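Worked problem 6 (solution included).
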Amino acid sequence: MKTIIAGAGAVGTHLARMLSVENINVILIDGDEERLSKVNNDLDIMTLAVEPTSIEGMKNAGIDNADLFIAVTPDESENIACAMMARQLGAKRTVARIDNYEYMKPENRKIFETMGISSLIYPELLASREIADSCKFSWVRQLWEFGDNGELVLLSVKMHDDHPIYDKEISNASNVLVDHTLKEIGMKHGHKFHVVAIKRNGETVHPYGDEKILPRDLVFFMTTRDNVPEIARLSGKEGYPNVKNTLIIGGGKLSVRADWALPAGMDIRIVEPSLARCEKLGSLLKNNTMVINGEGHDMELLIDEGIDKLDAFIALTENDEENILACVAARRRGVRKTIAQVENLDYMDMAESLDVGTVINKKMIAASHIYQMLLKSSVDNVKMLTVAEADVAEFVVKEGSKVTRDKVMNLGLPRGVNIGGVFRHGKGMLVSGQTVLQAGDKAVVFCIAGTLKRLDKFFN
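Solution. The predicted structure is:
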């Protein structure tokens, strides 16, 4: 598959890196030669120093036989223009990154289809949905729901053993999972969930039955919606309050979209240092959202705003370091749910080691949605797990595909791949080694980064 990416910025470079690992033919084009030279030092891909809107440049990149053209420059208008042009010049499918929420409305979808644009990507909108999902439970780091009604759930939970902040106010709260193997947990508590991965000391572990859960592990569970409370109880999180009182620092586009994505009735305040931006926010936010002019790192201001009584603290400034440090400070004040926007991938492990809470990375979220288009199998959804170097995808099982020919345990799936759940006749259920997938099933598959493309031969 030949893919041309226009824009060697953060999103384009990350996407090129991800696709090059999968041995996909990638050409990265950008008008800035200096920016491309940095990419050439890091990645083994073809680059071309041409403006994305140049017809001659497009032809030189081989647009006439491109399977996919992806426009992710910082300029929305340029992305739309070059995606339209790429389609006219022969690209089979096109994707454009946009910054206008109006373009995403269903009634406007047809307009862009007639322009020749196959898909639109709005990173802030995608990220805001992940923020809202992670706030559904204050004790969950990240949460992904699958199916029309969220019948299957993948969630990550930090293991704390007698934590001085989190356990002191909750009676009878104890983590009975820590220091036990997965086999012991399954035998004692029934098979109500699967542990599909563990993030430990900066590494993602694909666990087997003899793997032991340790303090400070970030554990990824696949379960059914009805068994989510059981995970809370076993991990010592039972009794954590719902998220109602929320403070957001930073008044940028992502904060606006998060304000709209968070549930109605939630008490939301946004701290923004620019007075001019504060005045503009008044017309962009929900009516009950309060805007405060001030610095998000001003601890005196945060104390005045009741940081000790917050259910959630969300740091969405454009400064990664400020977001990380603000969340660390909030957690030390006893805030259980903290969320930080971290765009620098080099800071991801540091953010996890500092226990900042949920980490949001817009470029990774956008890349996962684009990546879905590159799979030959029928895939309804792909999510890149920000801190786990892993992906989770929903594969539609085809008639005669390899996964229908034997039990899951005998399929010879690549190491790091775990089929956690399946939807059959509209009902979600967990998968065991004895399960045989059927045509028409929709399988929820967890896989370590770099293995997703290898599943085509099993599901296609």
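Discussion: The CA atoms of residues 11 and 442 lie 29 Å apart.
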